[in-house]
Amino acid sequence: MAKRIDVSGLSAYYGAHKAIDDISMTVEPRSVTAFIGPSGCGKSTFLRTLNRMHEVTPGGRVEGKVMLDDENLYGAGVDPVAVRRTVGMVFQRPNPFPTMSIFDNVAAGLRLNGSYKKSQLNDIVERSLKGANLWNEVKDRLNKPGSGLSGGQQQRLCIARAIAVEPDVLLMDEPCSALDPISTLAIEDLIGELKERFTIVIVTHNMQQAARVSDRTAFFNLAGVGQPGKLIELDDTERIFSNPSVQATEDYISGRFG
Ligand SMILES: Nc1ncnc2c1ncn2[C@@H]1O[C@H](COP(=O)(O)OP(=O)(O)OP(=O)(O)O)[C@@H](O)[C@H]1O
Ligand SMILES: [Mg+2]
After folding, report:
1. Is residue 39 lining ligand 1, measured as CB closer than 6 Å?
2. What is the pLDDT of residues 10-32, one digit of tens each?
3. Are 33 and 27 in contact (CB under 8 A)?
4. How far, in Å, CA of 47 to CA of 202, rounded?
5. 31-41 pLDDT tens trace
6. What fold, for 5-94+168-253?
């Protein structure tokens, strides 16, 4: 649980196009790291290299190393499916399985991974929904479809589904961008609780959100259209938003950008 990520020399390609160039960084366990930067600078691409989702895209290819504690996720013989179980992901648009009940949505990953007794499943589903701050709102309708929930509830359902399999790391790609302000605050509070158990990386375009939820912030940028994205600066969030070392970071966070 809650492992340290150590990335070195990571580049990612779509066919011949290099989307991110030579990124190195560490992410501490039980912390929240925010990725910020302009559209197209490779935040989502980089995030997906952290659980081997990038290579699912046709032409998707990675160079470099991602260590999760002492295992290289790109090492010989590593099973990408196992990696995706260890490093869970929550997407921009809540994507519950539409025909499945709330219960089955949360249990889906568990059922894929092994055989559980009904009572074990009940316990894990309840624990995960409580962990995602959704239990009280859905406990009387667990057999109703997940698609019948509000957007904010659906996103918490997806978080419950992600944490049900007990990942070490939780990746979130703009998890609040489709949500109203109240649901957004609910997810932000939840992130604050989840970081006690997981290592969390979140992509956000919302500077206030990055400042509110993250311990460390990474600013990515690209030199121009068609150029690969690079990591410009990674530092304590407080420092990034008060006194960054690089002018481009300052320009971006203060809105003097592009
Ligand atoms: N499936 C794909 N096939 C080819 N190129 C892609 C694909 N997905 C992304 N790219 C390219 O890779 C680069 C980085 O894209 P990416 O989606 O990672 O950026 P981003 O920082 O997440 O942007 P945004 O803030 O808009 O979400 C862009 O040039 C983009 O066009
Ligand atoms: Mg993106």
Report:
1. yes
2. 999 999 999 999 999 999 999 99
3. yes
4. 9
5. 999 999 999 99
6. Rossmann fold (3.40.50)
